Amino acid sequence: MEGAAGKAFRWAATGAGALILVVLAAVALFLILRAWPAMTTRASVLSDEISWFPDGKNLLQFVGPLVFGTLLSATIALVISMPVSIGISLFISHYAPRRLANSLGYVIDLLAAIPSVVYGLWGGLWLVPLLSPVWTWLSDTLGFIPLFSGPASDPPRVILTVGIVLAVMILPIITAVCREVFLQVPKLHEEAALALGATRWEMVRMSVLPFGRPGIISAAMLGLGRALGETMAVLMILSPGALYSFALLKVGQHQTIAANIALQFPEADPLGVSTLIATGLALFVITLAVNMAARAIVARRKDFSGAN
Predict the structure, then answer these.
(1) What's the pLDDT tens digit per position in 132-148?
(2) 154 in a domain, yes or no?
(3) SS (H, E, C) the chain
(4) Is position 28 within any domain?
(5) Is the pTM of the predicted complex or chain greater than 0.90?
């Protein structure tokens, strides 16, 4: 029979789970209530009373480009960071000597402790000038591709630079999760693959990666959540715009929700604050949808992950 300690632990765990749901519901309710004035105000009133609100657009048309810029920057960061993070994780867990693996793991974890404003300073003061000739060459060479159409700006305070900085920021999160997942692969799976004559890479491909697929997806979603909500680094690097544009090397094309809130909030009146909270509600919905989609993907593929 369950003892008093077991019952206490069970109720504590249940209360903690319920508390998470209550906090989530409270955040959603707060955002809806505070965003409601902006959501029910006519577009002409918004443009008249809010100095930075674009003329001739309603709230949905204002939020749309911000959502696009947020998703674009986060996608760029994820595309860049995922292969690097998985490679580092595999090197630490299956290739590097133990002493080197421990040291490298410590350095990767240390990157996660660096504040975002430091990444913003690093990106704005060091990386932007460094990338200027690279982006100019890329625009001149591959400018016929819409993604790299020029002219590239100098300095390149563009969405592609932001994506690289965000990739560096989310790399330690993804790497740490993937590393721990890869270390949990049953040794019998690895030894069976090697006993059948598989090379080290074939063993990783047949045993490690299938087993760790749910963890890789979870790590990607954690990194994506960090990239979607990043504020200061984007604000300090990106030259803002409000367009639906895939031109990664042009200035004044994109802006993210979080950076726009930080930029406009200090001088916003009550209606302006409500408008910014409405954009925050959009970011909340996006993050929630991304995490639900990730959970659905993991649940659908767990039976084929090789972990059973």
Answers:
(1) 888 888 888 888 888 88
(2) yes
(3) CCCHHHHHHHHHHHHHHHHHHHHHHHHHHHHHHHHHHHHCCCHHHHHHHCCCCCCCCCHHHHHHHHHHHHHHHHHHHHHHHHHHHHHHHHHHHHHCCHHHHHHHHHHHHHHCCCCHHHHHHHHHHHHHHHHHHHHHHHHHHHCCCHHHCCCCCCCCCCHHHHHHHHHHHHHHHHHHHHHHHHHCCCHHHHHHHHHCCCCHHHHHHHHHHHHHHHHHHHHHHHHHHHHHHCCHHHHHHCCECCCCCCCCCCCCCECCHHHHHHHHHHHCCHHHHHHHHHHHHHHHHHHHHHHHHHHHHHHHHHHHCCCC
(4) no
(5) no
